[in-house]
Design brief:
- 71% of the residues lie in helices and 0% in strands.
- It is mainly alpha-helical.
């Protein structure tokens, strides 16, 4: 759901607006659902907030049962091979552009492009990945306390320190601190994990950590992006909706339909490829066919490409991660097994 909400925002809304076009169903959703509810960016930011919460939850489970080396190897193999393919595809589509230099390609392959000025993004959606990688690095650095839910306090203290010192070390550090300021949303997911899924936090502690994460996130927005604090352009409203939906679905007993599992398995590839494959197909068809045909074609092409890359890139690298770390598993020391399905999702 989270990844496809971002696709909806991009393919059915923002890409069309850049071409001076409007998709009537998307306009109806905006006028009757997102605008009245205060959800900005046509569900795009809501989707991002939702998968930040999910990531904070699931990565907390993996960190609880994995040693540092296993955790790092699996996360690197989960993120970077598919990212590299997405960057290379963008290079093909942007051939001849002035920004397509070896330096910028290397920066994009490592995600360091989001931490230096000027920011050159070859894969626009990848801005969220640098935040994910920061959370992975912060989690790896606190693996010495992997069985303690109070590593949450360390995470929030780190974010608060970065926000406080945001302007102290130049423009590049300010970019770093700006990315760090999104981590409290993942910490909210981490809090839900330890509180509601593992029952290792009491209600007062769980609520206190959620309020602290909220406070640090608001502070970060005030320092870096105050425009998103306005009630008419609010990040916080969408985060609140996402948190509510996440908790409700966490408690719901839903069947695991095969088509849902398929969309889940391919969601990372979809997220990375919708800005290249989806955009290419949409632009190729938009002047030749009605939007009711062009948009489904772009979505279908993205999903087909995601299915192929999931089979050829994601699954092999995940299996490689398991083989490389087969003898590194740390979970017996924690006395309880990981959550079902968490390893595949992470």
């Amino acid at each position: 759901m989270a990844a496809w909400l971002v696709v909806w925002d991009h393919i059915a809304n923002s890409m069309l607006r850049e071409q001076g076009r409007t998709f009537l169903p998307a306009q109806w959703v905006h006028d009757n659902i997102t605008a009245p509810l205060g959800i900005i960016q046509d569900f795009g930011w809501f989707g991002v907030a939702l998968f930040f919460l999910i990531s904070g939850f699931i990565i907390s489970d993996r960190a609880r049962v994995e040693g540092v080396l296993e955790f790092v190897i699996k996360r690197v193999l989960r993120i970077y091979p598919m990212l590299a393919l997405a960057v290379l595809l963008s290079c093909v589509f942007l051939a001849g552009e002035a920004d397509l230099t070896p330096k910028n390609i290397i920066l994009n392959l490592t995600l360091a492009n989001y931490l230096v000025i000027p920011q050159i993004a070859l894969v626009g959606a990848a801005w969220t990945l640098v935040i994910e990688v920061m959370f992975y690095a912060l989690t790896a650095s606190t693996q010495f306390m992997r069985a303690s839910p109070h590593r949450i306090a360390f995470n929030l203290a780190f974010v608060a320190l970065m926000v406080w010192k945001r302007g102290a070390f130049g423009a590049n550090f300010a970019l770093f601190a700006g990315a760090v300021s999104y981590l409290p949303i993942l910490v909210m997911g981490q809090t839900i994990y330890w509180w509601l899924a593992r029952s290792r936090l009491s209600a007062p502690w769980g609520l206190a950590y959620l309020l602290a994460a909220y406070g640090v996130f608001v502070w970060g927005l005030k320092e870096a992006q105050p425009g998103f604090l306005l009630v008419t352009n609010s990040y916080l409203i969408s985060v609140a909706y996402a948190l509510l939906l996440f908790v409700v679905l966490l408690r719901a007993k839903l069947p695991e339909w095969r088509w849902v599992r398929f969309l889940s398995d391919t969601s990372y590839s979809v997220y990375l490829l919708q800005g290249s494959i989806g955009w290419l197909v949409l632009m190729a068809m938009i002047k030749r066919a009605p939007l009711s045909v062009s948009i489904p074609a772009a979505v279908g092409a993205t999903l087909l490409a995601a299915f192929v890359t999931h089979k050829l890139v994601e699954l092999p690298t995940q299996r490689l991660g398991r083989r490389l770390t087969r003898n590194l598993r740390a979970w017996p020391a924690t006395r309880s097994r990981p959550l079902k399905g968490a390893e595949e999702a992470a």
